[in-house]
Amino acid sequence: MSLIYIAQQITIYGGFCLLITGVLGNTINVYIFSIVRSYRTNPATFYFLIASIFNTAFLMINLSTRIAFGFNIDVTQISTHWCKARNYLLYTLSMIVVTCPCMAMIDQFLVTSRHVKLRRLSNIRWAHRFVLIMIIISNLQGIPAALSYEILPTTGKCEITYSYFGTYECIEAIQNPLTQTQLNGKYYSAHTMHRLMEIAKQKLNSYQWSRGHQWADPNDQRAHGGIVWNKA
Q1: Residues with Cβ < 8 Å from 187, sequence gap 6 or more?
Q2: Mean pLDDT to the nearest integer, 65-94
Q3: Counting beta carbons within 10 angstroms of the beta carbon of residue 76, is it exposed (0 to 12), middle (13 to 18) or buried (19 or more)?
Q4: DSSP H or E stretch at residue 207
Q5: 0.70 exceeded by pTM
Q6: Element (H, E) at 229
Q7: Are 108 and 123 in contact (CB under 8 A)?
């Protein structure tokens, strides 16, 4: 049993498992985030809804072609247009998928901010605008991929024909929202946790203050077993 045969079987069966579970999981996410109104009107969950929709399309395009390759069928060799379209869609969809969780994290930063102007940015209308801008930018970033891939006449395979695209990929990796999230995630998480702890302390202090003033009048107290109770 050769390594090529083993790799083909892993590609086929592993790809089928990932495709079925991925599409099913994202479909459930889309269904839950769509039917519950509070989820649709919450910016953070709205970003996850958009991510699930585009992630479903990404999995279907990416994994279906890889599964076909496991059967020795290279669909990218069908035509130059499909060769360009596949890579364009994969670059565009992947950018949207990794950007949405970053937008959700930024939304949590905004909603826990002390500044009123920043908190006002965390609303569903701004979320719709941010998603539209994100989709436009992602489509623009996918154009170099469509221009750089061609079916080479020497090999008959869909490959990169322009050397500058490698440099573009390096720059894109640095500017990738996922990379920025890893660099700035600790700051946003620390800020959010610090803000939540401050809110919790304020609520605790307010509760203790209100409990302490319940016994302002000695006539409203009576001891029972060492514990002070309110009158009914």
Answers
A1: none
A2: 85
A3: buried
A4: helix 177-212
A5: yes
A6: strand 227-229
A7: no
